[in-house]
């Protein structure tokens, strides 16, 4: 377990004991990460009207109201719980702003929140600069544009998983809770996503050979 996880667990323990300061710290400690998550998925038409911090603030206000119920049972790790509330607020805002003038049949269609073009670029930058052994072969800055192009060709599920890991800095444990799968499955999917990305890059590089 990482140190941030330990800090969160300590705050949960204190908050369950009635420490109001710990409750406030719990809600505040993930604000920046949640803002990155929201900014990465805000449709440009919505981003022109809303700031990610406003979305997160609304979600944190709801979390404050529901925190006692969460602390009573602690059904999932804290960040996945907080992220789910924020994700639901983000979905509702997109539905409100993008489908309000459309026919009801269109309003019934689910709203997707794929990574924006700018966010795929940022993900490529983080992958290129990441220093862990699974992605060491990507550690050349001149590959950034190639990585970005390869990311757009990956299945959306792979891009989302890589964004969780490298943009939101989510632990394997929390990724498992967010995705609703076992930690071993998360590790396998992560490895496969990097492998698919590497194969796309290798194909592109081979195509450039004279």
Features:
Butyryl-CoA Dehydrogenase, subunit A, domain 3, 210 residues, mainly alpha, Rna Polymerase Sigma Factor, Chain: A, globular, 12 helices, 2 domains, 0% strand
Care to describe what's here?
With 210 residues, the chain is mostly helical. It has 2 domains: 3-107, Rna Polymerase Sigma Factor, Chain: A, CATH 1.10.1740; 117-207, PhyR, sigma-like (SL) domain (Butyryl-CoA Dehydrogenase, subunit A, domain 3, Up-down Bundle). It is 72% helix and 0% strand. The chain contains 12 helices and no strands. It has helices spanning 3-16, 20-28, 31-41, 44-47, 52-73, 78-98, 104-107, 117-129, 144-153, 156-166, 172-179, 183-207. The model is unreliable at 103-110 (pLDDT under 50).
CATH architectural name of the largest domain: Orthogonal Bundle
Strand content: under 5%
Beginning-to-end CA distance, first to last residue: 49 Å
- Rg measurement, Å: 19 Å
Compute the average pLDDT: 82
Biggest sheet: strands, sense, closure?
none
Overall outline: globular
**H/E topology pattern:** HHHHHHHHHHHH
Number of E strands = 0
- Distinct helical segment count: 12
Helical content stands at: over 70%
Question: What is the name of the CATH superfamily of the largest domain?
Answer: RNA polymerase sigma factor, region 2, helix turn helix motif
């Amino acid at each position: 377990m990482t140190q941030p996880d330990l800090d969160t667990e300590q705050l949960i323990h204190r908050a369950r004991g009635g420490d109001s300061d710990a409750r406030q710290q719990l809600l505040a400690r993930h604000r920046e990460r949640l803002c990155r998550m929201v900014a990465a998925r805000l449709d440009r038409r919505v981003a022109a009207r809303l700031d990610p911090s406003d979305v997160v603030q609304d979600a944190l206000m709801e979390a404050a109201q529901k925190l006692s119920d969460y602390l009573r049972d602690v059904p999932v790790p804290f960040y996945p719980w907080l992220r789910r509330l924020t994700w639901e607020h983000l979905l509702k805002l997109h539905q409100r702003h993008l489908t309000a003038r459309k026919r009801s049949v269109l309003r019934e269609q689910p709203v997707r929140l794929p990574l924006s073009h700018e966010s795929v670029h940022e993900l490529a930058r983080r992958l290129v600069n990441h220093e862990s052994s699974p992605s060491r072969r990507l550690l050349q800055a001149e590959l950034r544009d190639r990585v970005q192009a390869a990311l757009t060709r990956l299945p959306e599920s792979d891009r989302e998983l890589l964004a969780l890991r490298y943009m939101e800095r989510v632990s394997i444990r929390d990724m498992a809770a967010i995705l609703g799968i076992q930690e071993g499955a998360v590790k396998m999917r992560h490895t496969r996503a990097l492998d698919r990305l590497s194969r796309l890059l290798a194909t592109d590089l081979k195509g450039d050979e004279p």
